Structure to design on (277 residues):
């Protein structure tokens, strides 16, 4: 019953989007259903509630030997992000930020890079925001999450095959439920064509929180689990400062061995801190 209700809720939220996506021209950066009485007049308001998850893929490699302070960095939003009143941030939107400081390896202390993302950009609109980092994963971890758990057999449909999210959640094919690693009866979301919609949950023993600032809406998680927290598939890499506390929005990654390199294609699960407009 829980899963059925979840599917109905998602289907109702997506119906106007699916209709609009058939239009022959490029979609806008933000989307409001045109038949919604709650849509803002002439799309003047661009509100991203605090606690909104932004699943992104890093476009810019980070290197303790090559990156420079004040260097611009960008990341691509990898899944439509639902917002209030049926609005959404389109997949393909670009997060823009910059490197704050690069500290090379100083034996026995490894290297570190601090950076922040502070703008969400399209061809028509730029929004200032503050984000913290909940989780990140190397390109190989992303590939593994997108690869079915078992090889396809005769007659198998690829989209219906189960996958394992980064962090351990199990996704049972497009349109199917997503359950936790520890309890297959605990449904935490639904798999879609472009990722997963689910409720974010706290991870025991970490500082990653569940719903925050009364934002209990379904979140776009892409390849991550509902409780994903920390670094995955990145040997010797640690999140030294996630940007949740002061200085808010400043993210610091460090290496406990040698230089630090984060390749382009690395996945990040960011969270908006405070309402962005």
């Amino acid at each position: 019953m829980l899963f059925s209700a979840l599917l109905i809720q998602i289907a109702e939220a997506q119906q106007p989007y699916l209709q609009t996506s058939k239009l022959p021209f490029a979609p806008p950066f933000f989307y409001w259903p045109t038949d919604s009485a709650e849509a803002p007049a002439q799309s003047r308001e661009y509100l991203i509630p605090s606690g909104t998850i932004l699943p992104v893929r890093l476009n810019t490699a980070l290197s303790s030997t090559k990156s420079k302070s004040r260097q611009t960095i960008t990341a691509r939003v990898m899944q439509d992000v639902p917002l209030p009143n049926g609005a959404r941030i389109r997949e393909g939107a670009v997060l823009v930020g910059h490197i704050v400081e690069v500290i090379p390896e100083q034996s026995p202390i490894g290297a570190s890079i601090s950076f922040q993302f502070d703008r969400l950009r399209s061809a028509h609109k730029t929004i200032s925001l503050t984000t913290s980092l909940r989780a990140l994963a190397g390109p190989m971890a992303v590939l593994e999450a997108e690869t079915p758990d078992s090889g396809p057999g005769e007659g198998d449909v690829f989209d219906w095959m189960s996958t394992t999210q980064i962090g351990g959640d199990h996704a049972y094919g497009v349109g199917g439920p997503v359950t936790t690693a520890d309890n297959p009866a605990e449904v935490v979301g639904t798999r879609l064509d472009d990722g997963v919609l689910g409720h974010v949950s706290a991870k025991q023993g970490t500082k990653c929180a569940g719903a925050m600032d009364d934002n209990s809406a379904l979140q776009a998680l892409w390849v991550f689990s509902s409780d994903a927290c920390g670094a995955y598939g990145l040997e010797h890499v640690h999140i030294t400062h996630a940007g949740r506390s002061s200085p808010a929005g400043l993210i610091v990654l460090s290496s406990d061995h040698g230089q630090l390199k984060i390749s382009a294609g690395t996945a990040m699960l960011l969270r908006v801190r405070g309402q962005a407009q």
Residues 1-27, 40-44 have pLDDT under 50 and may be disordered. The first strand starts at residue 30 and ends at 31. Residues 2-19+55-272 form one domain.
